[in-house]
C-alpha cells in the first residue's frame, strides 16, 4: 500500500488495490473534500430531521421508543446521501433496515457462522449487494466516475462524493474486479462509514443527556460559540472546542472495542518479550489499553479517584492551559490534549492503515450533537431517565459497541431568536 511498491514486487500499478484504496480515501476524506462532505452531511441531516418534525405544532414533544434506532435511521440516511448520492437509497426502500440487520450480525459473520445458522444476516447481505450492483450500473449509465479534477463537482446525485467516484475509477481499471467485487468493496465502505460512527454518535448524545447541568451548559456554550458572522454553525470552529473534543475522545475511549489486525511482511520482531515471526498475524485491541489505569498513570493522566477508567468522564482529555493557544477554553482555562496517549487511545488503529475516515467521523459525531443541540430540545423518557444503559460487550472486538436495550426519548423543535442554518 506504500507509495513505493515492495522490493521485488511485479504487481502492475493498476492492480495495487491496497495502494489505491488507501490513497483515494486519504485524499478524498481530507482538506477541502472533508469540509464539503461534512457540511453536506449536516445539511442532509438537518433536512431529514425537519421532515420528522414536519406537521407537529411548535413546542410539542414527539416521543420515540429508541434513541439508537432513531440515529441509525437518520444519521445513516444523511451519511449515505452525502457519500454515495441520492440514487442508492431510491433503488431499495429497505436499504437502511437491511444494512442494520446485516450489521447486527457482524460479530457472527466474522466468526464465520454458516448461512443456515443466521439466514437473516445472509439474506440482508444478499439484498444489500444486489442493490449496490444495481446502483453502480445506473450510476455508470448516467455519470462519469473519472470526473475527479478540482473543477469537477464535489458531489453529484449518481455516485455522490469524489471518494466513491475514485473507487469506481481504480476498480474498473483492475480487470479482476468484477461487478460483485465492486459491490462488496462499497458494502465495506458503508460498514466503515456507519458501523462505528453511528454508535459513537449515540453515546455522545446519550452521555450529554445523562451529564450534570454544568457539563451540559458548557457543551451548549461551546456550540453557541461556534457560529460564523451569519449565526450559522462553523464546523471548523466547532471541532476545535476543548470540551466537545474531550467528550468525543472519551466516547471513543470507552465505547469502541476494536481489534486491529497486523502482520510483519518483512522480518520477525520483538514485542513485550515475545518474538513475533514474519507473516504471523496478530491483533492489537483498543479496549485493554483504554482501561489500563497503570499505563494512564504513567502517561500523566491518572485521575483514579475522581474518574476511574471504566466510567465515563467528559473532562478526561482536558489539561490545564499552558499558553493562550487556539483551541483553549477561556472559561475553564483548559485545553484538549491527546499528548502522551499514543498506544493508549487507539479507536482508529494506527500506522499506515489508520482509519482514513477519522477526521470525517469527528466532524460527524460532534456536528450531529451540535445540530441537535442548536435546533432541538431532547430528553430521555421512561426507564432511560433513571437507568444507565450499558454497551453490549458481545460486540467486542468488532468496533464501536451498541447499547444494550432500548433508550426511549422525546424531541421538539426549539424556538429560535437568532438566524440558523449550516
Ligand atoms: C468512530 C468512528 C470510526 C472508527 C472508530 C473507525 C475505526 C477504524 C479502524 C480501527 C480501522 C482499521 C485501521 C487499521 O487497520 O489500523 C478503520 C478503517 C477504515 N475506516 Fe474507519 N472508523 C470510523 C469512522 C469511519 C468513517 C466515518 C469512514 C468514512 C467515511 C471510515 C473509513 C474507513 C476506511 C475506508 C477504512 C479502511 C482503510 C484501509 O484499510 O485502507 N471510518 N476505521
UniProtKB/TrEMBL annotation:
Heme binds at residue 355. Keywords: Heme, Iron, Metal-binding, Monooxygenase, Oxidoreductase. SUPFAM superfamilies: Cytochrome P450. The keyword Oxidoreductase applies. GO terms for molecular function: heme binding; iron ion binding; oxidoreductase activity, acting on paired donors, with incorporation or reduction of molecular oxygen; steroid hydroxylase activity. Pfam families: p450. Its cofactor is heme. The keyword Iron applies. InterPro entries: CYP450_sterol_14alpha_dmase, Cyt_P450, Cyt_P450_E_grp-IV, Cyt_P450_sf. It comes from the Eukaryota. PANTHER family: 24-HYDROXYCHOLESTEROL 7-ALPHA-HYDROXYLASE (PTHR24304:SF2), CYTOCHROME P450 FAMILY 7 (PTHR24304). Belongs to the cytochrome P450 family. This is Cytochrome P450.
Amino acid at each position: 500500500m506504500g507509495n513505493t511498491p515492495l522490493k521485488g514486487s511485479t504487481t502492475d500499478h493498476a492492480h495495487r488495490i491496497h495502494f489505491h484504496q488507501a490513497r483515494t480515501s486519504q485524499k478524498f476524506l481530507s482538506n477541502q473534500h472533508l469540509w464539503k462532505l461534512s457540511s453536506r452531511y449536516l445539511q442532509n441531516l438537518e433536512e431529514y430531521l425537519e421532515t420528522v418534525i414536519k406537521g407537529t405544532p411548535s413546542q410539542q414533544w414527539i416521543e420515540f421508543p429508541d434513541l439508537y434506532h432513531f440515529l441509525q435511521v437518520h444519521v445513516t440516511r444523511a451519511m449515505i446521501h452525502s457519500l454515495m448520492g441520492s440514487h442508492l437509497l431510491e433503488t431499495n426502500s429497505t436499504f437502511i433496515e437491511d444494512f442494520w440487520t446485516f450489521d447486527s450480525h457482524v460479530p457472527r459473520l466474522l466468526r464465520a457462522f454458516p448461512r443456515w445458522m443466521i439466514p437473516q444476516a445472509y439474506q440482508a447481505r444478499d439484498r444489500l449487494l444486489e442493490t449496490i450492483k444495481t446502483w453502480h450500473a445506473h450510476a455508470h449509465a448516467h455519470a462519469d466516475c473519472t470526473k475527479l479534477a478540482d473543477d469537477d463537482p464535489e458531489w453529484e446525485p449518481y455516485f455522490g462524493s469524489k471518494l466513491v467516484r475514485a473507487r469506481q475509477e481504480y476498480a474498473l481499471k483492475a480487470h479482476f474486479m468484477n461487478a460483485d467485487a465492486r459491490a462488496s468493496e462499497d458494502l465495506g465502505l458503508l460498514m466503515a462509514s456507519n458501523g462505528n460512527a453511528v454508535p459513537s454518535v449515540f453515546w455522545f448524545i446519550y452521555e450529554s443527556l445523562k451529564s450534570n447541568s454544568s457539563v451540559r451548559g458548557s457543551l451548549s456554550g461551546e456550540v453557541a460559540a461556534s457560529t460564523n458572522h451569519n449565526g450559522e454553525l462553523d464546523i471548523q470552529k466547532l471541532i476545535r472546542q476543548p470540551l466537545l473534543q474531550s467528550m468525543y475522545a472519551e466516547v471513543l475511549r470507552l465505547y469502541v472495542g476494536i481489534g486491529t489486525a497486523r502482520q510483519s511482511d518483512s522480518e520477525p520482531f520483538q514485542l513485550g518479550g515475545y518474538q513475533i515471526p514474519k507473516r504471523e498475524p496478530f491483533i492489537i485491541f483498543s479496549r485493554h489499553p483504554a482501561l489500563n489505569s497503570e499505563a494512564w498513570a504513567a502517561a500523566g493522566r491518572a485521575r483514579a479517584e475522581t474518574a476511574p477508567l471504566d466510567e465515563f468522564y467528559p473532562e478526561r482529555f482536558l489539561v490545564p492551559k499552558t499558553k493562550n493557544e487556539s483551541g483553549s477554553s477561556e472559561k475553564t482555562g483548559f485545553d484538549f490534549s491527546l499528548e502522551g496517549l499514543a498506544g493508549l487511545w487507539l479507536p482508529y488503529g494506527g500506522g499506515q492503515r489508520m482509519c482514513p475516515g477519522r477526521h470525517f467521523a469527528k466532524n460527524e459525531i460532534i456536528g450531529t450533537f451540535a445540530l441537535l443541540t442548536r435546533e432541538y430540545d431532547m430528553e430521555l423518557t421512561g426507564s432511560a431517565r433513571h437507568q444507565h444503559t450499558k454497551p453490549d460487550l458481545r460486540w467486542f472486538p468488532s468496533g464501536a459497541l451498541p447499547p444494550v436495550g432500548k433508550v426511549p426519548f422525546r424531541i421538539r423543535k426549539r424556538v429560535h431568536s437568532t438566524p440558523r442554518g449550516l
